[in-house]
Amino acid sequence: MADERGRTLAEKVWDAHTVRRGEGAEPDLLYIDLHLVHEVTSPQAFDGLRLAGRQVRRPDLTIATEDHNVPTVDIDLPIADPVSRTQVDTLRRNCKEFGVRLHPMGDAEQGIVHVIGPQLGLTQPGTTVVCGDSHTSTHGAFGAMAFGIGTSEVEHVLATQTLPLRPFKTMAINIEGTVGESVTAKDIILAVIAKIGTGGGQGYVLEYRGSAIESLSMEARMTICNMSIEAGARAGMIAPDETTFAYLEGRPHAPQGADWDAAVADWRELRTDDDAVFDAEVHLDANELTPFVTWGTNPGQGLPLGAAVPDPTAIPDENERFAAEKALSYMDLQPGTPLREIAVDTVFLGSCTNGRIEDLRAAAGVLQGRTVSEGVRMLVVPGSMRVRKAAEDEGLDRIFTSAGAEWRQAGCSMCLGMNPDQLQPGERSASTSNRNFEGRQGKGGRTHLVSPLVAAATAVRGTLSSPEDLN
Amino acid sequence: MEPFTKHTGVGVPLRRSNVDTDQIIPAVYLKRVSRTGFEDGLFAAWRGDEQFVLNQEPFNRGSVLVAGPDFGTGSSREHAVWALMDYGFRVVISARFADIFRGNAGKQGLVAAQCEQADVELLWKLLENEPGTEVTVDLAEKTVRAKDFVATFQIDDYTRWRLLEGLDDIALTLRHADEIASFEGQRPSWKPVTTPLAAS
Questions:
Q1: Radius of gyration over alpha carbons of chain B, in Å?
Q2: Which of B16, B180, B193 is opposite residue A19, by nearest beta carbon?
Q3: Reduced to 3 states, what is the DSSP secondary structure of residue A171?
Q4: DSSP state string for A208-273
Q5: CA A444 to CA A464: how far, in whole Å?
Q6: Has residue B197 got a pLDDT over 60?
Q7: Could you tell me if A49 and A181 are in contact, meaning their C-beta atoms sit under 8 angstroms apart?
Q8: Pick from A459, A312, A400, A419: which is nearest to A68 by CA?
Q9: Cα(A75)–Cα(A73) distance, rounded to whole angstroms?
Q10: pTM reported for the whole predicted model
Q11: Is B115 helix (H, G, I), strand (E, B) or coil?
Q12: Cross-chain CB nearest to B107 (options A122, A150, A298)
């Protein structure tokens, strides 16, 4: 009997939020616990509400911040780009009109939407979290069902606090073992994406499991879940455990007192049952992983740092070969060049993937007593104003500036270059962000995705490097 | 949303896989707060190249895009769908679509027709050998036709029904307002709310 079979973590969270089951081809109606809003994907949704004479059903389950467009310098001045300014002003007007809590530029709680949700304790195990941003998968690190949506769905959630959806398929990503020195969560997820491909997760929610995942901090788990979308997945999840509870306890919006006890009792049930069956399973050996970097123009085109630029003529599949040729041409790379010899102009440390305090600590540990290579520009952009303040309290900002890096205000910044932080045509970056798409960081810019440790070491040597290369 | 039953228009071969939404519309074009006018951002980086397919007659008048696998990956930006539709596209054909893009397309009335890659290859050859060939996409019978070429495509039945009827998703959901309210009444009291905390 299907009913007697155990359930996966994803199925448990889904079932607990099903307002009504769809009949036949009809989707289920899923209740949304938390809706995160930012300035880029919401203006047309609020317009839609106004046109239809609808209200925000649950402003108390909705929170907004300004992150994609905001400059990371001179934030006390009006935004110089008039179009960006209009978009930010529009969010402010909409939040005021519809009663949505907003953390604007300069506010102590402002930051990248996926950094502030967990930081405030709003992202909790077993919740459903959506945002008009594909990296919403980040919140799955807490055992939440969290996924990115388009603007029509943003409007749908604002109006109804629900979404009509078919259940996602489930895929287990089993990672056993212990990672070596200088191997981080970023290297793990880049290796996963290289293994299953940018379309490998389509239609699935990925559950990351195994001893290598259980030993990770919450911040590292967020890095992993964050990039689930780069494997094409709807969401990524990790079962909550003591690490999760310890991170949440005492956060501003975490339950308190008897509520905390009730919540933790509930959260402890959020594990995949032993007899549950995943629709697909993938295995990875953590012991074999080394620092991983991308060479191409999608996040699946990655290799260990010790490898060389691949030779497209050796790729049997015609479409993949053609894609690799196009990527190498765009990236201006020659087959056979050792990845360690690739010189960069810019190093970007930040983003919803790697802009949290542990990421800054890791990079600062490498940069302490060292200097950024001549001719290399390094931008350090904290994921939130809270992260920025914590870093300053620890003196990390002085390590970065002494090394010659630029210490910036919080935002999405050069991850997608909607603000002035962009690559110039032909410039090459080592970036701790999540996408190496053509032009992502600025028209004609070339991006290599790396971990914070590799970013810092690369800044010092000027070519793609791991900390061991500095000794 | 306008109902969609059948569409015929010039087919455009886009021989690329992994066309991410940053390629469909770069981030600098996402700053508008209106719902229209995104056609200038469509494939903006590629349109600088005069060899690019949309810079050539008669493909610049196309309305059925035939693309490689993994179309619409990456960012959730619905602007990608708006840019395609504002330019004049009504259908995208591909062997694999990214989930969020497919969802966004379905909300806006852009048909994301999933065909076998072998059929995509046949269509590419046909459209390249005979530029201007019209492609007919019939949503009721789930077929793609061009000259002698006929193939079926996949689309989920619910999206297909909504597109055929031109139905508004929010209105459909609001028919279940009572069930939503009843669900809300049973949520645990410790679930988080975003209401600002009192200053301590």
A1: 20
A2: B180
A3: strand
A4: EESHHHHTS-HHHHHHHHHGGGGGTBSEEE----HHHHHHHTT-TTS--THHHHHHHHHHTT-S--
A5: 20
A6: yes
A7: no
A8: A419
A9: 5
A10: 0.96
A11: coil
A12: A150
Distances, alpha carbon A221 to alpha carbons A226, A430, B3, B122, in Å: 8, 22, 44, 44
| Structure tokens, A154 | 């943003």
Structure tokens, A236: 């990524």
Burial of A317 by CB count in 10 Å (0-12 exposed, 13-18 middle, 19+ buried)?
Answer: exposed
Query: Number of helices and strands (H, E) in chain B?
Result: 7, 7
Tens digits of residue pLDDT in A138-155? 999 999 999 999 999 999
| Neighbour count for residue A186 (Cβ, 10 Å) | 29
For A249-261, the pLDDT digits (tens) are 999 999 999 999 9
d(CA A150, CA B39): 18
For B140, counting Cβ atoms within 10 Å of its Cβ (0-12 exposed, 13-18 middle, 19+ buried), the class is exposed
CA distance A199 to A230: 8
A96-115: pLDDT as tens digits: 999 999 999 999 999 999 99
Which position has the token pair 């690190």?
A141
Q: DSSP label at A166?
A: P
Tens of pLDDT, residue by residue over A290-345, are 999 999 999 999 999 999 999 999 999 888 899 999 999 999 999 999 999 999 99
> Phi first, then psi: what are they for A430, rounded to 5°?
-105, 120
The reply to whether A95 sits in an annotated binding site is no
Quick one: tokens of B162? 């909504």
Interface test with A, best of B19, B176, B193 (most A CBs within 10 A): B193
Question: In which element (H, E) is residue B184 found?
Answer: helix B177-185
Q: What is the spatial distance between Cα A134 and Cα A136, in angstroms, rounded to a whole number?
A: 5
Contacts of B195 in chain A (CB under 8 A): 60, 101
pLDDT of residue B199: 55
Looking at the complex, does the CB of residue B178 fall below 8 Å from at least one CB of chain A?
A: no
Interface-testing mutation among B21, B86, B194, with chain A (most A C-beta atoms within 10 A): B194
Distance between CA A419 and CA A412 in Å, rounded?
Answer: 8
Residue B76 carries which side chain, given as an amino acid letter? Answer: S
Which of B33, B76, B184 is facing A86, going by the closest CB pair?
B33
My answer on whether omega of the bond before A71 falls inside 30° of 0, hence cis, is no
ipTM of the complex: 0.95
Q: How far apart are CA A230 and CA A120, in angstroms?
A: 26
